[in-house]
Amino acid sequence: MVIGAGVVGLSIAWLLQHQGHRVTLVDPTGTGPQPPQAGSSAALGLLMARIYRRSSGRGWRLRQRSLELWTSWRQQLGAAGHPLPWRPGLLQLAADADAFAAQTRLAAERARRGLTLQPLAAETLAALSPCLPSGAVGGLFSPDDGQLDPLPAMAALRADAIERGLELVANGAGAIERQAGADRWRLALAGGGWLQTPWLVLSAGLGCPALLDPLGHHRPHVPVLGQALELQLPAGTPDPCQWPGSVSWGGVNLVPRPGGRLWLGATLEPPAGEPPLAQASAAELASLRDLGGSAPDWLRQATVLRHWQGLRARPHGAPAPLLEELEPGLLLASGHYRNGVLLAPATAEWVAERIAAGSGLSGISGSP
Ligand SMILES: Cc1cc2nc3c(=O)[nH]c(=O)nc-3n(C[C@H](O)[C@H](O)[C@H](O)COP(=O)(O)OP(=O)(O)OC[C@H]3O[C@@H](n4cnc5c(N)ncnc54)[C@H](O)[C@@H]3O)c2cc1C
User: Fold this and answer.
1) Would you say the pTM of this structure is higher than 0.90?
2) Is residue 52 one of the residues assigned to a domain?
3) What is the total count of domains within the chain?
4) Is 277 among the domain residues?
5) For residues 284 and 271, what is the distance between their CA atoms, to the nearest angstrom?
6) Computed from CA positions of residues 122, 128, 133, 139, in that sequence, does the dihedral angle turn out positive or negative?
7) Could you report the per-residue pLDDT of 59-83, keeping only the tens digit for each?
8) N or C: which end of the chain has fewer CB within 10 A?
9) pLDDT digit string (tens) for 127-164?
10) Does the beta carbon of 336 sit less than 6 angstroms from any atom of ligand 1?
């Protein structure tokens, strides 16, 4: 039984169902839209694996594995009639010479591993159309990273898993308890009734702490606000889909969309010691809109079609994500913070491996 049907829970349910398990997925939203504060349906879907600044540790391994798995999952889901919209390529811009030098070193390090990252000089960037934000002195292009549309991806995972027998329970999970004298977990549904299972996987994002606290497992999550805008570019603007991929600049991600549109997205961390933000201020939105003052004219003239926000679950005092077998048969897979879309497949694989191993207490440990 999997609790929570964001991209993480759906990935877990899909993989387990594929492997021949009988899976029940519990989420009050059922097949409908996620609640507004959920992360997955707000996400831009960038998969930043090769361009990750570290080259070892758990975070590195999970990212690389997830990128591989998304490639094979895209093929499998496409062959089953559920194609996943995917735009390859990611270009990270450097604001100063030091940042560009670090990018160049990272490219050399990746080359030694046989992985491609390409430093692009300012002259190469200047040739791109439409023109990039002003101020970049260089950039790093990753052809293997890219962008996956989260909503169609979730719909594809859900539809394929349902075709393979996934049971969806449109209800909230209330209390969970270990069934006395049996290797089973009992789950009280918010709408009444109980379900039982030998394996309970918690992938309810910010909903996890309330389910775990009564069991004595305190895993606080901090909600971190993410903002996004969809813009319609002025008629006659060259299509940003001609860029080699999505662009990352000064903490803002720019994702080219079909039909002359562009998504802009950014994370809003509260100042140190301040409570989490619930809403972006007008000034923060304006800064996102004009890329902190570096937006080119064509972007300033664009029309805002849509504004949305969502919450990223950041584990408090622990590296993201939380992958732990808390008790026999009770698995936690949450706190994916800024990379839940990327990390969903490797998370699902970890869950499947724990279930296959069938016993023993462990988590993926080590430095993030
Ligand atoms: C604006 C924005 C942009 C982002 N961009 C990216 C990106 O480019 N790339 C990337 O990899 N990540 C990105 N992220 C982060 C990513 O969205 C999250 O890490 C990811 O969505 C987490 O997925 P999840 O399934 O764990 O949680 P969620 O999507 O939050 O899903 C949790 C689910 O649990 C359910 N639930 C909660 N409580 C209960 C309960 N008691 N019983 C049953 N169900 C329950 C909820 O209804 C919800 O459907 C972005 C996030 C935001 C906000």
Assistant:
1) yes
2) no
3) 1
4) yes
5) 13
6) negative
7) 999 999 999 999 999 999 999 999 9
8) C
9) 999 999 999 999 999 999 999 999 999 999 999 999 99
10) yes
